[in-house]
Design brief:
By secondary structure, the protein is α+β, with helices and mostly antiparallel strands. It folds into three domains: about 120 residues, Immunoglobulin-like (Sandwich); about 200 residues, Immunoglobulin-like; about 90 residues. The strands form eight sheets. A seven-stranded mixed β-sheet has the order 17-20-12-11-22-25-24. Strands 2, 3, 5, 6 and 7 form a five-stranded antiparallel β-sheet that branches. α3 runs antiparallel to α4. The longest helix has 25 residues.
Length: about 425
């Protein structure tokens, strides 16, 4: 089932317009041992919505090593589609994608079971709306780390849309560009970097924050915004910015051995969590926030850094620092990986505690699974660039795969 997660990760990376593309597998790809049919039905999830005739689709398949199949097709007037003579193998995962009203939609993944020769992929599309009023933030995670003279802020917004329309557009920025959502950043934020925006087209930095031009699909926790930025650090500083959408649950996390105390209105007492090997983190729950309210925390103390050769140091000591930041991807970076690995562990804990302690099922699993996949992707990239030793790569990847299995098992038990 870890193959299923690999497919889900790749589906997010491939959510790009593809109408008119003609790429297709013309030969049996390596590893395929039979052919079969992939069928599906497009439905419109918006009340009164219709299915246009002749929607173009793209069919993808993946195994744990990457993409194995890519085929173009067209649905009929009723929204049905069929791909014949498709190479397949046990364990491969298929997904179909299409663009409607300039918004990309994708099917539920379909895994090839033992001996299977037909896979069914239902796809739901939605009409669009430019009214972002219903959007709310189901989860807001803030992770703090430190480098010389700076505090590194990692923020993860998990957004929900309770309507039956995909929300996109609606905002016109000062430069004339169109966006869907507007977010605030603290004054003085710099080195702003967005995850999952390789094209640089989705997020737009504005004078007081940033805007997201992507669509928010209907449902709970359907959209993620992940970014990193830095601020000059000084003891007693306050990090504050408004939230433009209601926040149901939020928290702030920081290494327990950072040497910095964290205070703020609406913060619960810190919960100490062992979220990674030899790494304890303090997690501060934050009261729900209404639209327009601010998330504000005050940091006091001199940061203690994790340094080379198992040593500890403060800002005043001349030692070689090992970064704990997320580098360019939310996951395990080449150097250290402490904060990224902690976030993965935190995601598992967050889901388990919210589900089992409160006695109700939460829908945090998709974002948790995605965090594991992002970490695997970042680790693979670092390894390919020679930034991680073979021994560390094998050990970290095995641990991440174990995390993915644990999430699947926990989700299956809850259901």
């Amino acid at each position: 089932m870890t193959k299923l997660f690999s497919a889900l990760a790749l589906s997010f990376l491939l959510l790009l317009p593809f109408a008119g593309r003609t790429s297709a597998q013309t030969e049996m790809p390596p590893g395929a041992d039979r052919t079969g049919a992939v069928t599906g039905q497009i439905t419109n999830g918006t009340d009164g919505g219709k299915i246009p005739n002749g929607l173009a689709l793209m069919l993808h398949a993946w195994d744990e090593n990457g993409e194995t199949v890519m085929l173009d097709g067209v649905a009929d007037s009723a929204g049905a589609f069929r791909f014949d003579d498709v190479p397949m193998k046990d364990g491969w995962v298929f997904a179909a994608m299409l663009v409607y009203n300039d918004v990309t939609f994708f099917s539920e993944p379909g895994e090839v079971q033992l001996g299977m020769t037909e896979v069914t992929l239902p796809v739901t599309i939605y009409e669009i709306s430019s009214d972002a009023t219903p959007v709310h933030i189901s989860q807001l995670h803030t992770l703090l780390d430190f480098s010389a003279g700076e505090v590194i802020v990692n923020e993860i917004y998990i957004l929900s849309n309770p309507t039956d329309r995909a929300i996109v557009g609606g905002l016109t920025l000062a430069d004339g560009k169109t966006a869907t959502l507007q977010f605030a950043l603290p004054a003085g934020a710099n080195k702003v970097n967005f995850e999952r925006d390789d094209s640089g087209a989705r997020f737009i930095v504005t004078p007081d924050g940033f805007a997201d031009s992507g669509a928010v699909l209907p449902g709970e926790e359907t959209t993620q915004v992940m970014l990193t930025y830095t601020l000059p650090y000084s003891s007693g500083m306050t990090i504050s910015h408004a939230v433009n959408y209601p926040v149901a649950a939020a928290n702030v996390m920081m290494r327990a051995d950072s040497g910095v105390a964290l205070t703020g209105n609406g913060l619960a007492e810190a919960a100490r969590r062992e979220l990674a090997p030899d790494a304890a983190f303090d997690v501060y729950a934050v009261n729900p926030l209404a639209s327009g309210e601010s998330l504000a925390v005050t940091l006091t103390g001199e940061p203690v850094y994790r340094v080379s050769e198992e040593m500890s140091g403060t800002m005043g000591q001349r030692q070689t620092l090992v970064p704990n930041t997320l580098v360019s991807r939310w996951g395990i970076p080449a150097a250290g990986g402490l904060l990224g690995l902690a976030m993965i562990g935190f995601g598992v804990w967050w889901w388990r505690s919210s589900d089992k302690e409160e006695g109700v099922e939460q829908e945090n699993w998709p974002s948790t699974a995605q965090s594991v996949l992002n970490a695997i992707a970042a680790l693979d990239e670092a390894y390919e660039l020679g930034e991680v030793s073979d021994e560390d790569y094998q050990a970290r990847r095995a641990e991440l795969r174990a995390q993915a299995r644990a999430i699947l098992q926990a989700k299956g038990t809850a259901q």
